[in-house]
Amino acid sequence: MPQSMEYREFGRTGVRVSPIGMGTYYDIGWIAASALGIKINLKEKISAIRKGIEAGINLIDTAEFYRSESVVSMAIRDYDREKLFVATKVFPTHLRPEKLIRACDRSLRLLGTDYIDLYQVHFPNFRVPVSETMQAMERLADDGKIRHIGISNFSLPKMIEAEQSLKKHSLASTQMHYNLNHRSVEKDILPHCRENGIALMAYYPLGHGKLAELPHGQAEAAAAIASKYGLRTDAQVALNYLLSSDRCVFPIPRASNPQHVAENSLLGGNLFDREDMDTLTSLFA
Ligand SMILES: NC(=O)c1ccc[n+]([C@@H]2O[C@H](COP(=O)([O-])OP(=O)(O)OC[C@H]3O[C@@H](n4cnc5c(N)ncnc54)[C@H](OP(=O)(O)O)[C@@H]3O)[C@@H](O)[C@H]2O)c1
């Protein structure tokens, strides 16, 4: 892997991953077409992930819901599996123990791998006790099918319930909506993650693309900050804001265009200072 990338420990897992990850939620059109066996722009998607790996990104996020586990499988097959950190998610209708174990086996098959680095509960299911799911997660970890346990879209009280339900393993991460326009996690989840050594994967880090092209006013201010740090684009400013907010934050922009991935892989080494962070938050208040 390129030495220029500054890897960070993912939570308290002892595993170092790239500060920027790659997301593989394409869109509902992809999911619907995939269900019919049609894979839209498959080659480009695979090449985007491969481009990221070549550039040193080793954190890859998928989910059974996205129907992109097989894309990840095709993209990673020629690389050293131990150097990659593959995260997937179980759908909320599969949180009872037997269903969870079946879903995990399916994801392992689709990913073409013997283990999942991070297995995340995609959303809580209020009909299934968190403790029941977490115990089954621990069984998967004990069986070597998964290495770490994560959650996504859990409120802070639900997150604490998940942490307290784990007896032998610790919660490695949560995954939440977090970007310059959507900073509610900074009030509670981010401080909790910081204090407890839990990684926070930021999804929609580019506001689903909106933050990659800022409107007049915000664009000029972002450009002034960008030039101080050797950055070129609005997207890089938006992602670097998240990377600078705390070392526990790992943004996972979607990777379907190889050029975007190459650009995103350059981030992580030159964090914004307090003053520039404040300027950015005042622009997006
Ligand atoms: N846990 C959850 O509930 C949840 C929910 C939603 C998403 N996610 C995860 O988070 C990931 C990211 O979310 P998202 O894909 O919806 O939104 P996003 O990453 O905020 O935005 C994606 C858009 O930004 C573009 N982009 C990426 N890098 C860029 C760059 N350097 N310059 C300009 N544009 C750039 C992408 O274009 P290209 O694709 O053409 O590169 C795409 O149009 C998903 O892929 C998924 O893994 C998780």
What would you say about this model in short?
By secondary structure, the chain is of the alpha/beta class. It has helices spanning 28-35, 42-54, 69-76, 97-111, 130-142, 156-165, 189-196, 218-228, 234-245, 258-264, 274-283, and strands spanning 8-9, 16-17, 22-23, 59-61, 85-90, 116-121, 146-152, 171-177, 199-203, 249-251.
What can you see in these coordinates?
The chain is an alpha/beta fold and 285 residues long. The chain has one domain: TIM Barrel (Alpha-Beta Barrel), CATH 3.20.20. 40% of the residues lie in helices and 15% in strands. It has eleven helices and ten strands. The chain has helices at residues 28-35, 42-54, 69-76, 97-111, 130-142, 156-165, 189-196, 218-228, 234-245, 258-264, 274-283; strands at residues 8-9, 16-17, 22-23, 59-61, 85-90, 116-121, 146-152, 171-177, 199-203, 249-251. The protein has an eight-stranded parallel beta sheet with strand order 3-4-5-6-7-8-9-10. A two-stranded antiparallel ribbon has the order 1-2. Helix 2 (42-54) crosses helix 3, helix 4 crosses helix 5 and helix 5 (130-142) packs across helix 6 (156-165). The mean pLDDT is 96. The structure holds NADP nicotinamide-adenine-dinucleotide phosphate.
List the helices and strands and how they pair.
Blueprint: E1 8-9, E2 16-17, E3 22-23, H1 28-35, H2 42-54, E4 59-61, H3 69-76, E5 85-90, H4 97-111, E6 116-121, H5 130-142, E7 146-152, H6 156-165, E8 171-177, H7 189-196, E9 199-203, H8 218-228, H9 234-245, E10 249-251, H10 258-264, H11 274-283
Parallel strand pairs: 3-4, 4-5, 5-6, 6-7, 7-8, 8-9, 9-10
Antiparallel strand pairs: 1-2
The protein binds NADP nicotinamide-adenine-dinucleotide phosphate.
The site of NADP nicotinamide-adenine-dinucleotide phosphate has 25 residues, from helix 10.
